[in-house]
Amino acid sequence: MRHGKKFNHLGRTASHRAALLSNMASSLILHKRIQTTVAKAKELRKYVEPMITKSKTDSTNNRRVVFSYLQNKEAIKELFSIVSEKVANRPGGYTRIIKLGNRLGDNAEICFIELVDFNETMLAASAEKAGKTRRSRRGGTAKATEAAAPVAAPVAAEETPSAEVVEEAPAAEVAADEAAPEVPATEESTEEKGEDA
After folding, report:
1. What tens digit of pLDDT does each residue of 104-123 get?
2. SS3 of 124, please?
3. How many CA atoms within 13 Å lie on the side-chain side of 1?
4. Which of 20, 30, 45, 165 has the fewest CB atoms within 10 Å, i.e. is most exposed?
């Protein structure tokens, strides 16, 4: 019976699953972004995020614990030197999953899994959003009167072009009325020609 075994076994034996997750975690740490299936990415997130948390405190014991999972010296160096500095002030949520659609061969759902602090484009976009501030609808009375004065002038300027548009509209209708009688005349002439033939 498999009571209480809720995690995804990924269709592998325990040793195969451990080797898969270890290899994927090393690749994620070294390359900062990898492409895989959504099921593997969700399991990898649960596997790698506790290691990233351990890397925040660089001690011999933490290095040994993480090495017991990863078995890759290069990944350990990268994790405890570069990655830990970037995530030092982040309280969790070090990875992001970006879904890409389905794979052509077997229709499996594929995605990118990446380290959040290493995606430069998203960091730049969030910095631009951070520049905007929320403004309250309630303001001082002096601000309200200053805002009301400039608004009145553009409204008057907008009314003038709308009057010109109204004048142009009947002219277009007159042109359409002149063109309309020509169409039936050509139809009548073609009908007369058809009767004569």
Report:
1. 999 999 999 999 989 888 88
2. helix
3. 2
4. 165
pLDDT at 2: 86
**Alpha helix stretches (DSSP H) within the chain:** 14-31, 38-55, 60-70, 73-78, 84-86, 120-131, 141-196
The residues, any chain, with a CB within 8 Å of residue 65's CB and separated by 6 or more, are 54
Q: Are 38 and 111 spatial neighbours (Cβ–Cβ below 8 Å)?
A: yes
Name the helix (H) or strand (E) containing 102.
strand 95-102
d(CA 192, CA 197): 9
Q: Is 171's pLDDT higher than 80? A: no
**pLDDT single digits (tens) 57-91:** 999 999 999 999 999 999 999 999 999 999 999 99
* CA–CA gap between residue 191 and residue 195 (Å, rounded): 6
Give residues with Cβ within 8 angstroms of 146, minimum separation 6.
Answer: none
Distance of alpha carbon 44 from alpha carbon 60, whole angstroms = 24
CA 84 to chain centre: 25
Task: Give, rounded to a whole angstrom, the gap between the first and last alpha carbons of the chain.
Answer: 93
Determine the Cα–Cα distance for residues 66 and 75; give it in Å rounded to an integer: 10
44 C-beta neighbours (distance < 10 Å), count: 21
